[in-house]
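Anyone? Bumping this.
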Amino acid sequence: MSRYPEPTLAEVADWWTTGVTRIAPGEVEHRGVPVADIIGERDLVSAMYFLVLGEWPCTAHRDLLEAALVGSMDHGPQAPSIAVARMAATCGIGINNAMASAVNTLGDSHGGAAQQCVELLNDVVGYAEREGVTIDDATEVVVAIWRERSPYLPGFGHRFHPIDPRRGPLLGLVEAAVADRHVAGRHLTAALRVEAILAAQRTPVPMNIDGATAVIYAELGIAPELSRGFFVLSRSIGILAHAWEERSGGRRNKGPMPPAILPTYRPSAPIPDVSAPPAAP
Amino acid sequence: MSRYPEPTLAEVADWWTTGVTRIAPGEVEHRGVPVADIIGERDLVSAMYFLVLGEWPCTAHRDLLEAALVGSMDHGPQAPSIAVARMAATCGIGINNAMASAVNTLGDSHGGAAQQCVELLNDVVGYAEREGVTIDDATEVVVAIWRERSPYLPGFGHRFHPIDPRRGPLLGLVEAAVADRHVAGRHLTAALRVEAILAAQRTPVPMNIDGATAVIYAELGIAPELSRGFFVLSRSIGILAHAWEERSGGRRNKGPMPPAILPTYRPSAPIPDVSAPPAAP
Amino acid sequence: MSRYPEPTLAEVADWWTTGVTRIAPGEVEHRGVPVADIIGERDLVSAMYFLVLGEWPCTAHRDLLEAALVGSMDHGPQAPSIAVARMAATCGIGINNAMASAVNTLGDSHGGAAQQCVELLNDVVGYAEREGVTIDDATEVVVAIWRERSPYLPGFGHRFHPIDPRRGPLLGLVEAAVADRHVAGRHLTAALRVEAILAAQRTPVPMNIDGATAVIYAELGIAPELSRGFFVLSRSIGILAHAWEERSGGRRNKGPMPPAILPTYRPSAPIPDVSAPPAAP
Amino acid sequence: MSRYPEPTLAEVADWWTTGVTRIAPGEVEHRGVPVADIIGERDLVSAMYFLVLGEWPCTAHRDLLEAALVGSMDHGPQAPSIAVARMAATCGIGINNAMASAVNTLGDSHGGAAQQCVELLNDVVGYAEREGVTIDDATEVVVAIWRERSPYLPGFGHRFHPIDPRRGPLLGLVEAAVADRHVAGRHLTAALRVEAILAAQRTPVPMNIDGATAVIYAELGIAPELSRGFFVLSRSIGILAHAWEERSGGRRNKGPMPPAILPTYRPSAPIPDVSAPPAAP
């Protein structure tokens, strides 16, 4: 009756194969390590790195990841994710649901800049390696290619901050790690070169939090999409803080503006009917 | 203190400008029509079309949209969206939350085929118009271009059904609407031509539900992304039916397999450390 | 190794047992009816009722459900769900994801009033039947009990509308259905009696959209929680209309206010440390 | 036109008042502390505690919270949340969307046990304080009250583990913190007493991960609902690990079982029509 050969029970178990966690009655192991050897023995950032990436980070790498996670926890309620968390928290749903509604908005435009910036920096380093040129020269080429697609480079410029106050501390940590040979520093060089290229323009657009954390993720060799995953873990903390603050306030069904203000109504033209049948012959 | 000029209250109201609904104390109007003139006066599909697109559909167009919505309500629990709805419904969250978890999975791979197929069919019709060739000839060209990107064409082939039982009834309705000159039929012609091209291959891959509904959306002039929106409305019905059925069963924390079956544990290689510092010179 | 007996493949299939949809290669049946007998043959509201509830509605019941669904599609962007949909639509996520973030907020406070009002009306009718008293007398008793829990009765009063313009048309349809003996009218009587009790107070709080649709759901015998499910289907239409309108506007990362306005910062007292250890003895 | 007095711009800004984060051009402060004083200066768990609760934890409290977060990261794909994360990750949506679908399922049944167990333990300690009795005596009373509502006590018993391997290490840390007078130990005493009461029954139901983490949250004075928030942060790590693993595998539209297995179809009785009109008089 099916197009498929008859399955076996082993195939059912295999359908959900994982290398992350093994359980047996009385046993929980993460990537081969009993959970009892992790609880109280390992800090959260190391445990997170190990669970997701499958190896323990060295202290220097752990510290860099930790700084990136601490640095992007929150930027206040003007961010759509935080506004969503706060409004959702007033709607009579669980705090996990409010958090999910908010995490869901960390998309390509809102949470994707770090991911895209990692791609940009990887492009530069990859080009330099392939072509045997310096990072600086590779950056010139790759930036030109990226700008053909869009005038905006992910991770640079901020619609609010002339200088992002999180840029300096994060880059300072990366510079120290480069000096100590904990990371190679090529992605940092690339990012600083991008910044210099942009600074030579009329309006400088310095690196923002997404760019600065992207330098860390890229130096750690974390894949672009996974970088967004780590950002989600970080911003989830701010989301929780705001959901909880709003919850404690007791308001119900909070809208985006005080209720005395009504949204402007402006009729829009009907969508033209592009489906009209052809004229009779 | 801000980079922006001082705003006005009108700008606050304008920030949320909409042409969909106007409210005033005692009044609710959808696109200029008092809600009292819609309730009991208009069927759900017409009201939906009007609210989203800003004009009333003719009966023939309404019927086509209705058929597309009725046709894609559900395909059972092997679809990730439905499995998610059912598992979520057992986790102690609201039925709206269970529905949201499921709707959230109707992404590019799961709910996006209709949207992509509308793009394909629009490409064909656009090419034919621009180049002054027949739909059949345009289809040959456009299919060749699309297949350079991917061997799979969205809306064609099904991993389960040799022939999708929803294809025939839906295309039959479109054919009748073409015969009655309610729609132009160019997207239908394009879709049938795609099917013919694929049928000439070793393994025919006939049009599936996404392709058949895409023909309807495209003939109605509905934008590709909005087509996914309508699909979401349709599949939400199946999502509700399954969430409700599961809810009525009373199970708690339903996993993907009977609890006696454990996922296979297979250690994965650690992610290679691409961030190693360069060797000392 | 497991606490469970060895499962069989049949038990795996049974784990996902459903009565909603049966598929086989080339076949899709909803509750025993081939999908080809539904597409083009049945309207969306009947198909929805059938898929969820397992039987076809009579025309009168279908019309009432349709009116409830049409009546609660949208109330504009001051509703958190709609604001969430619009902000989410600017964040670079799929339109299904924007819809999911919004549907997720239709919780106990935002989408739950109809559900709770169905419970209230069912309580009245159940009390009247059990105690052999009139609906009017039962309403007095049940309202008194409910108001001990909360001064607010779900489905009555609106923070914006003195009179909800959707109340009249919806109740008019129910009254006609009662006159024609299509529904019993007991829940309608109960709801009107609640309204009369509240009107005798200083500030009348007439029935709102949630109350009016609750009368329909309750008259149709639809379970309270499922009433919320139907409301979700209805409001999903407004959610799509607004997500699409916002999407068409092209804004990115829309916050809740124009960016020139910053949220007020007001330090909150630290949370008291209730975990302090006891003083030494 | 509105029921509300004319608002002011200050009221608009006040609508989004927060004590979590203040931004100004070039400045980001969390609860009054410049972000540059946190990045690289504070570990993630302290920063999280500070952002959410408004004060810095002492080292001992930080370590306890860290252990709770590390201990509940993951339990494998049989948990609905993890299965949802993995299936969602194959549907062509962003990794943040896959994570949101999963976080959304951490509801009362799946993620709520720790929250409920904190309530239980708080009930015991509150009773002991109010009535001036020992924690042990208070536990007897409170457990009896809770079991009238449900035979199951949140945080005790596991359908898979006879003994939860995470219980011992977590309680060991709490015991050490009590010995060092970092926490009072009353909630620990209560939890151990609950366990002893249950052990005296035919089938012992020892404390599970939710109970053990609840002891930590309760000893730290973290509110019950906020405990679920912290659990969400912890489990989000496992959700990311699994979403990422699945993503790396490249499967599309993963259902809950291998596609060769079809869900069992079992017709369900139509829902009885409880809405039938009364018989004619």
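Late reply, but here is one note on the structure posted above: The radius of gyration of chain D is 24 Å.
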